[in-house]
Amino acid sequence: MELHDQESEGREILRFVVPAEASGERLDKWLTSVTDMTRSHIQLLLKEELVTVNDLAKPARTVLKGGEEILLILPEPEPLELLPEDIPLDVVYEDDQLLVVNKQRNLVVHPAVGNWTGTLVNGLMAHCKVWPGINGTMRPGIVHRLDKDTSGLLVVAKTERAQNSLSQQIKDRTAKRMYLALTWANFKEESGLINAPIGRHPINRLKMAVVANGRQAQTAYSVLQHFPQMDFLKVQLLTGRTHQIRVHMAYAHHPVVGDPLYSTKEQHWGLEAQALHAYRLGFFHPLSKEWMEFTAAPPQDFQNVLKKLGRPWAEGGQEDANIDFIIGRDSNPTDHQSPGA
Question: I need a labelling partner for 89 at 20 to 30 A (CA). Which of 108, 124, 133, 279 fits?
């Protein structure tokens, strides 16, 4: 296979020669395997006749024989109808493929009904004046999210290649996301794996819940320290369902302290929101394949509670070494026992 870039009327053209070993494969599936594009995006380009096989437009279902010359015309990315907004962002790392931001509380990640402005994406549009195209649109690539009132680390893709790589790493569980949380009462076990499906709450549609017909959800936890009224936990996501940690902790009868939706206890200790913070994030860089890892200290009110409990956060954010991933890159999540709750 040969691949090189050309220019035609300001648009980039990719040229491929199909190798013999690709004989029998579908056109759309093969192009997905050799580009940084999603299959749905490839199918859209085929439908718009921006792909030719031996100078002829062909449908996605075309079966390759080997030896064909394929030209793929990349359309100019269309601007996304989002207003850039001057929102202060704590960007902890950035290169031409991605950036990592330490998201503050009270910030919605992505525009949606009820929050078309004032989101992280609006702030990112202002932070980086020109975004490369992702699925034909100039926009940041959101590959995972944090709840509005959950603080901490979040990686954002700047290119389609980064978007696809990071999304796949999250799907394959090679990307690692670890949180710090304060939860009510004390776990009997020092560590465990909560494996319970999550879906929309059958009555309160604003909430999620553990339901029989929900999507698979797995949350690993480990107790960092027991206190008389609560536990200080590190929690690792193995899947990424809406409100997952908050739902699983409430299901285990240890709701997150300060959670207004899933905890029936009053908010104490001067917390401004739920005591849940995305502390550590690790992934392989989409281009270099180098393992990258970042940490961010919890918000000041979270630290204040820890200090009142007798566990002050170390100066400079350098905490003890056991606040590390529960499940490493080569570990099996089934090694952890399910909680007795």
Answer: 133
- 213 within a domain of the structure (yes/no): yes
Residue 330 annotated as catalytic: no
pLDDT(9) > 70: no
Token pair in block for residue 46: 């085929």
**Residue 205 in tokens:** 């549609």
Q: How confident is the model at residue 76 (pLDDT cuts 50, 70, 90)?
A: low
Q: What is the pTM of this model?
A: 0.74
Task: Let me know whether 223 and 327 are in one domain.
Answer: yes
Question: Which residue among 36, 95, 147, 324 is the active-site one?
Answer: 147
For residues 223 and 157, state if they share a domain. Answer: no
| Two structure tokens written together for 35 | 């580009």
Residue 193 makes CB contacts below 8 A (sequence gap 6+) with 218, 219, 220, 221, 238, 333, 334, 336, 337, 338, 339
Range of the domain at 61: 4-76
Residue, of 164 and 293, whose pLDDT is higher: 293
DSSP conformation class of 256: B
**Domain boundary at 47, 76, 105, which?**
76
Tell me which residue of 98, 89, 94, 100 sits closest to 280, measured CA to CA.
100
Name residue, tokens 């793929």: 72
Buried b (16+ CB within 10 A) or exposed e, 3-23: eeeeeeeeeebbebebeeebe
